[in-house]
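Standup notes
- DV: blocked on the single-chain target, sequence here:
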Amino acid sequence: MDVADETVDTLLDEGTPPGDVLVVTTGEQHPWAQHELSFGEDAYWRQLADGEDVFCVHTTELARVGRRAVVVLAVNGGTDAQAAEALPAALAKADRSLIVCGDPQRLRDLL
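- DV (later): unblocked, structure below
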């Protein structure tokens, strides 16, 4: 998760608008998503609709999300099958680029 967060920071520092970035997790929800969900589902999903900030979503909810210029996939858990399914699903949401963060050996094995 730390590498995914650093990647997002770099993207933003390089001028990528926050609303162009989607972070997808395969294991535990991103801490930002956990925090936002504590205010309720409506407020959380409203931020997605506003489209002005980086949005974090679990792969199981990816179907509810539209495309973004950049998708950062954090392979931070879940089964190998779930992680393998997340790769093409995240790619389908990326207009410009998909950045995958996780254990390199696990990612090689999944590919």
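- Follow-up: The first strand starts at residue 21 and ends at 25.
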